[in-house]
Write a structure and sequence with these properties.
By secondary structure, the protein is of the alpha+beta class. Strands 2-1-5-11-12 form a five-stranded mixed beta sheet. Strands 7-6-16-15-14 form a five-stranded antiparallel beta sheet, with helices on both faces. A two-stranded parallel ribbon has the order 3-4. Helix 14 packs antiparallel against helix 22. The N and C termini lie far apart (about 100 Å).
């Protein structure tokens, strides 16, 4: 005889249940009639299940897993073949022991669950079949109502008509919730046991089977006693169904429960991965709308192969720390390093800040700073395209530069360097400001802007002021590296790319390959520029960047008051930009590490230390000599035109991306002190005419 209380409780519940069943049958009859009359389930019921949301994986160039992208749900779909039979048995014994026999709805199981739950006083068994649970989780809301249960039953019958039992079970095992954000059996194995589903033990399988009914109430970490009781019940069910011997079940009851959850998926807390993520979310090849792209990136199961070379990344970080120890930086300054591969535009390494976790601001892609004299190659390229020769001579002495439409402009040379007549090559090697300010005006300031745009700098950030030739406009380290990579690739610009290939969950390639290049200037111009820029490293301001046994071309850059320091250089194989400054804005680096920081100091040292190791084992390749020898030099006469019409400022006052500190108006190779004496007059050269300005076609 049952005790009175359980018996009374059963009588009440049975009465209520009988009423509910009668009502349910009445409501169910029209739907069942439709199912029977159709002969087959409707295909849209199956299609409505959709694809299971799946995490997207981000890989380095060498196949190393960098991160897994997912929304709030952790899902790692598997096939049924990957699940050991004893794991399947454990789940079916607890959740649906007659799964292989019923047609979607199991009335006997429902009644048995009712009796068991009433006698125990709590929900120990559920009446819904695996098929019903799949329908509920994938198609219906979790509301508890007769109408919802009727729909669940109808759709379960239809689903059994369209899918095989194995297909239904596989879908179920990939969407069922196990708590702690784990959706699906594989995610559960990772979360609780840091394991693959193939490696689950029998005891672990029983524990996971027990969680399904109430993932929150049977959480093994937060509710270990309840979870253990539930695990032991699962073992009992396996004994009853002859999937386990009583003796083996007794042994498994002594297995300890997990005490913590694992997060085996690498979080996307990295500058490179974050850049990849943001670029994909903006890539219309993954969807026309923002929601479509979000679903593709976080739920689409994409395999994203990035351009990152982990070995180069490690070398860049090591060189940066070696040259700039904390004793030098003192928490005030930092640096960024970016490497772009000529010919592809692939970003192979990116050191973008000190700690992504606390400072998510990407100094390599968002840090717009004045490049100083590292901008001068843009002027050089524009001049070469206009027919100037690197052997042309120009006055490097300072004085008032009169430009039509602007106030008189008075640049200054860095610490008294320069002065007198020199070749363009010499002016580049020694980074003579006054020579380059004149050259920019002679070439045409708009042509200088056009060249910078061809090399990837946005036009809206560039104004044709006389100070532009000295790097008064802003650029990011990534933009500078990509621009110099264009010279290394003999004039073909490739937009920087962080992704080499993206495939969908089925292995189909969605897109991939290098970005399509476009010619920015002629091969001849590129080769001549390479010759000129090699002189910077061989005998100019960038000698600290020399690489023994290799040809290197590059340019130093230092903005006013030593606030930003750059070295951007390249070999035929790699182009790298190194920037140093304050992460919050323009702060003077005077007296840092016992020196006033210029592009030829710490940045050039970081560049050399990194590139020396990065190119170890790589064949040394020389730059190709120009097909046509540059023309003999001619003196470039400064016409000093007077101002006509309303005068404009000679420079633009800009602000940095970190608004705390404003950017000073003019960038130079270093400090530009006010002149203490009258400008040195230019020597009178031989009266040779200036070379004719010609525009050459770009092949």
């Amino acid at each position: 005889m049952w005790p009175v209380r359980p018996l009374a409780r059963f009588a009440v519940i049975a009465a209520v249940a009988g009423t509910g069943i009668a009502t349910g049958v009445a409501l169910l009859a029209p739907s069942l009639k439709g199912v029977l009359s159709s002969g087959r389930a409707r295909s849209q019921d199956v299609q409505a299940l959709g694809e299971v949301a799946q995490n997207s994986a981000v890989y380095a160039r060498d196949g190393r897993l960098l991160a897994v992208l997912h929304a709030e749900e952790n899902r790692s779909p598997i096939t049924l073949d990957q699940v050991p039979p004893y794991v399947v048995n454990a789940i079916l014994d607890v959740e649906d022991e007659r799964f292989w026999d019923h047609g979607g709805v199991n009335l006997r199981s429902t009644l048995r669950a009712l009796v068991t739950n009433v006698s125990s006083g709590e929900v120990l068994q559920g009446g819904s079949t695996i098929t019903q649970q799949l329908v509920k989780n994938a198609l219906l809301t979790p509301e508890k109502s007769v109408d919802r249960k009727v729909k669940e039953a109808v759709l379960a019958v239809r689903l059994e008509d369209r899918l095989s039992k194995k297909e239904i079970l596989e879908r179920y095992l990939n969407i069922v919730y196990f708590g702690n954000g784990a959706y699906g059996l594989q995610a559960a194995a990772e979360t609780y046991f840091n394991s693959r589903v193939e490696d689950l033990t029998l005891g672990q399988a029983a524990m996971l089977a027990g969680i399904i009914r109430n993932p929150l109430g049977y959480d093994p970490v937060k509710q270990p006693d309840r979870a253990k009781s539930r695990r032991d019940l699962a073992l009992e069910r396996m004994v009853v169904n002859h999937h386990l011997t009583p003796a083996r079940a007794d042994e498994l009851r002594n297995e300890p429960m997990p005490t913590k959850v694992f997060t085996p998926l690498p979080p996307p807390n990295d500058y490179f991965v974050e850049e990849v993520k943001q670029r994909l979310l903006a890539d219309r090849r993954l969807g026309e709308t923002a929601q479509e792209r979000y679903n593709a990136v976080f739920k689409g199961g994409l395999r994203i192969q990035t351009s990152l070379d982990p070995s180069l990344q490690a070398l860049a970080e090591r060189s940066r720390k070696k040259v700039l120890p904390d004793s030098v930086l003192r928490g005030r300054f930092t640096s960024a390093v970016v490497t772009v591969e000529p010919g592809t535009g692939y970003v192979r390494a990116m050191v973008a800040g000190d700690d992504f976790g606390t400072a998510k601001y990407n100094l390599a892609t968002q840090g717009k700073r004045q490049p100083g004299s590292s901008f001068k190659p843009f002027v050089l390229l524009a001049a070469l395209e206009e027919g100037f020769s690197p052997n042309d001579t120009i006055n490097g002495s300072c004085g008032v530069l009169k430009v039509p439409g602007f106030d008189p402009y008075k640049p200054g040379n860095y610490e008294g360097s320069g002065g007198g007549v020199m070749t363009i090559t010499q002016a580049t090697a020694k980074s003579v400001n006054c020579a380059y300010a004149r050259l920019g005006v002679m070439v045409g300031l708009e042509k200088v802007v056009d060249m910078a745009v061809k090399l990837g700098l946005p036009r809206n950030r560039l104004d044709a002021f006389p100070s532009i030739s000295l790097g008064a406009e802003e650029a990011t380290p990534l933009e500078m590296a990509a621009a110099y990579a264009t010279i290394a690739d003999e004039g073909v610009y490739h937009a920087p790319s962080f992704v080499e290939k993206v495939t969908d969950r089925g292995g189909k390639v969605l897109f991939g390959g290098p970005t399509k290049g476009r010619r920015a200037f002629s091969v001849q111009t590129a080769r001549v520029a390479e010759q000129v820029m090699q002189q910077v490293v061989q005998r100019g301001t960038g000698t600290a960047a020399r690489l023994p046994g290799r040809e290197v071309a590059g340019k130093t850059g230092t903005s006013q008051e030593w606030q930003n320091a750059w070295f951007v250089g390249f070999t035929p194989q790699l182009a790298t930009a190194v920037w140093m400054g304050s992460p919050i804005g323009n702060v003077s680096m005077k007296g840092v590490g016992g020196r006033n920081v210029t592009g030829g100091s710490f940045p050039a040292q970081i560049w050399a230390g990194y590139m020396r190791e990065a190119l170890q084992g790589v064949e040394a390749v020389d730059f190709t000599a120009p097909a046509v020898k540059p023309k003999p030099g001619k003196y470039l006469k400064d016409k000093n035109s007077s101002n006509d019409g309303p005068a404009r400022p000679t420079h633009r006052s800009t602000s940095t991306t970190a608004p705390e500190l404003p950017v000073p108006p003019v960038a130079t190779e270093g400090v530009q002190p006010p002149p203490t004496a009258a400008p040195t007059p230019a020597p009178t050269p031989a009266p040779t005419p200036a070379p004719p300005v010609s525009t050459r076609a770009v092949p």
